[in-house]
Amino acid sequence: MTPDRENSLTDWLAHVERLHAKPIDLSLDRVRAVAQRLELHLACPTLVVGGTNGKGSTCAMLDSILRAAGYRVGLYTSPHLLRFNERAAIDGVAVSDEQLIEHFAAVDAVRGDTTLTYFEFTTLAILRLFQHARLDAAVLEIGLGGRLDAVNIVDADCAVLTSIDLDHMDYLGPTREHIGFEKAHIYRAGRPSICADPQPPQSVTDVAARIGADLWRFGRDFNYSGDKQQWAYGGRQVRRAGLPYPALRGANQLLNASAALAALEALAGPLPVSQQAVRQGLLTVEIPGRFQVLPGRPTTILDVAHNPHAAAVLAQNLDSMGFFPVTHAVFAALGDKDVEGVVARVGARIDTWHLAPTAGARGLAVDALAQRVLAACPQASIARYASVEDAFAGARAAAGADDRIVVFGSFVTVGGVMQVLQAERQ
Question: Which CATH code is given to the segment(s) 292-425?
Answer without folding.
Answer: 3.90.190.20
